[in-house]
Batch of 2 targets.
Target 1
Amino acid sequence: MRYSLNNYVSAFSQVAKTTSREQVVDGFVKLLKKTGDIKHSQKVIEAIHKKIVNEKGGKWINIEVARGSALKKEKLRHKFSEKDHVDFKINSELVAGIRITVNGEEELNNSLQNKLSKLFK
Amino acid sequence: MSELFSQLGIDWKLLLAQGVNFVILLVVLTKFVYKPLMKMVEERRKKIELGIKGGEMAENIIKSAEQEKVGIIKEADTQAIGIISEAEKNAQKKAQEIALQADKKAQQTLHETLLLAERREKEEMAKVSAEAKKLVKEAIIKTVQLKPEQVDEKLIEEAMGGFKA
């Protein structure tokens, strides 16, 4: 990346304070194309999204489960605040159970893989 | 007096001449025979005396040399005995040291061998243990994968019950 994620996020935040959302988004996409970082747009958007969620007092929650059948999104979503952003992901390496990460820091790992690792250390 | 000589049949002139002849003969013999002969005898006597003295000296030297030889041999014997005794002591000491070192080395080797065997045993045990753990882990995973829903539900409920974001 030509500029760091933090640079993009702070630039977006500063411009968003004074300009309308559409103009900011258009301008930002142009900027990414110009710098050649459009291929990393997903990362940049996610970083901006995290920043917005945090600024609103919410948390960025990542929930990983081993299979789709265990992913009861609504039931899990209700455990968190409306301000929080909850991402769901299937990770078969967990074998069974769940792993919850809050703001990028692991908060709870109740996966079978983790339990087995601890058991057979 | 001449009458007495005449009566005795002695011619005093002849006697005088014979006396002079005798004196002359005595002087000549003394000068040319007696003195050189005596000188020769004296020289021979001195030579003999010198020879005897030399012989005595030589005998004394031989005796002294003999005594010195005996002394040297005795001293050499004593020294040789001392050297042999010292060498024997040294050899014994050296042999003891070698035996001690060999014993130490043997003990060290034994200790190292035991340690090595113990380490290998531990390594083997660790390998076996790791293998067993892996197998058990795989078995559990396979068992869970046969019917994962219940385990999933239990683990998720357990997690959400204790989780407060």
Note: Helices of chain B lie at 2-8, 12-146, 148-162.
Target 2
Amino acid sequence: MSPLATPAVDEHVDLVHRTDPDRPWQTVVWDDPVNLMSYVTHVFREYFGLPRPEAERLMLAVHNDGHAVVSRGARERMELHAQAMHDYGLWATVRQEPS
Amino acid sequence: MTGHAVVLEVARLEAAHLAALVGQFAELVDGSTPAAEDPAIARLVPTPYPDDDDAAREFRSLTESDLLTRRRADAAIVLLSLAEAAGIPDDPEDPAMLEQVEIRLEPETVRAWLRTLAAVRLVMAERLEITEAEEHDPDDPRFGIYDWLGYRLDGLVASFDEA
């Protein structure tokens, strides 16, 4: 009887690059030289239903940092948000939350 | 929730210019130029997956036509609301050119205006190759139009969002 075979598995493989289903997705809005600060604030208020100070804080994050995460959650939902941002003329991308 | 009807005051000449500009925009969006061949159209349907061509292609196939259809519908709403104000006399000396007229925009119409003004600016910025917010060629009159659209957009946002 042979002992249970121990496959030569490198346990580190894929730990870094695999897609972790539990890691949430994000909708990211990027700064651009065209859209007005007032308009971007309006979009965040109208679409996400944010109070003005919160919408302005988010707008300034986009403006000052070059981008801001505007939503987190399931991928399909983040894609809907991105499409909605595109509909307003904002530049949005979808990504899995960086680990 | 933001938004209520807004009364916009414009000179007939300005309304006519705006209608012409939005008309050109509608023609551009109506044209058959694929996004891949025109950066201005591409800017209206950006990819949410810049690092994943397959996902980008799939997303675009699902959303591009909806987004462009919406641009056309918005532009049509703007043109309709401008039609009366944009009626100008043939004689350029006619004082009616500068007559101020009021346009009442219902909330849904305001939203179409905001999206359209923003989109027309995106297209112009591609054509003018604007990469910095303050980048302006003072000798190019198109920058004047671009700024004027920004001024109108900003004013409309302010009236629409005021408590």
Note: Residues 25 and 75 of chain A are 5 Å apart (CA to CA).
